[in-house]
Amino acid sequence: MLDFAIFAVTFLLALVGAVLYLYPASRQAAGIPGITPTEEKDGNLPDIVNSGSLHEFLVNLHERYGPVVSFWFGRRLVVSLGSVDVLKQHINPNKTSDPFETMLKSLLRYQSDSGNVSENLMRKKMYENGVTNSLRSNFALLLKLSEELLDKWLSYPESQHVPLCQHMLGFAMKSVTQMVMGSTFEDEQEVIRFQKNHGTVWSEIGKGFLDGSLDKSATRKKQYEDALMQLESILKKIIKERKGRNFSEHIFIDSLVQGDLNDQQILEDSMIFSLASCIITAKLCTWAVCFLTTYEEVQRKLYEEIDQVFGKGPVTPENIEELRYCRQVLCETVRTARLTPVSARLQDIEGKIDKFIIPRETLVLYALGVVLQDPSTWPSPYKFDPERFDDESVMKTFSLLGFSGTQECPELRFAYMVTTVLLSVLVRRLHLLSVEGQVIETKYELVTSSKEEAWITVSKRY
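Structure tokens predicted for Cytochrome P450 20A1:
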């Protein structure tokens, strides 16, 4: 199950940190095609760094050796799976606890136990209810924030370049903080402080733990620890305020507070959800708008659907559910952008994929970025084609990968809804246009983003 694929690289690192020296490691790759270690201590880490990202390293590795490949992270054997067929073989017989908590708790230095299977299922259900209830209760707020951004863009002259990444990050931070943590973040200064601390923590999770540079810099490490402490302090205060009280607006933290969790579990879960939802929402909004500016026909069809569903009436939660083509646009955005390119698991018991034996305690990667553009699964994989999701079998495959349906992670479901409301508001009133000559290069980290600011222009529909 790929419920929490979004934290790809870091989960691998967390697993490495947990098992690297706890178990004896062999330099034999169990007959699985792949490469030998470049260095005794670091394995193939230099190759990953030289490739630019783990995703790009895996693309090259799977092109050379096929859908099942091996390499070394330190002294630990890693197996990467790069096709739908082999993923199906591994997902079903290897259902274990979700990697999400294991990964982030390790990186955030949290120590609480993840719980047994029934407790994990209970907490997953609590997450899902928290997302549903917070979106329903705060729909008017989400609509208001979307309309504020619309008004800002409407005020611009048509020639003005709009810094899309900056605006989408600001919008996501305002939306997520208020819907997850409440009215404290109606104060814009609180949002700015949260965004600064969030950026410090997230950047170190994405980079500092990968190359080991965080522990080598006392200044950076103190900045990281101070930022994390400030985020925890905010959450502790909110948790204390919400306990034992009823509020008219239900926020995500309320679902955790009302559940059978202790204070430390509430703190950890709310921290994880806050960190993830902000960045996932920001990047999904950014990529969706980017693709709409590039593919005018897709934007036209989306506008026609929005116009047909809403007419001159208001955007409502009920009507939002009717935007089928919009959901296809978002699914194709996730696929084409390879929004979350890698996930990982620890092999609990010896397993078998095709003819290959995967030894116990092997790190197993799901190379989602490779799979999402495999031409045998996705015809014309580099074409942005939302209508491919008309096919039920395509949606079934997408669900298997954790991007839709019952396996969809709560953070992504949250981001889908926020982005749908925003697009409904923007596309209804504006033509979204690309800047001539701009080339957007991709940066593959925990969540895929553009290397530089993405610029757009807008013009009024009416």
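The CA atoms of residues 127 and 410 lie 6 Å apart.
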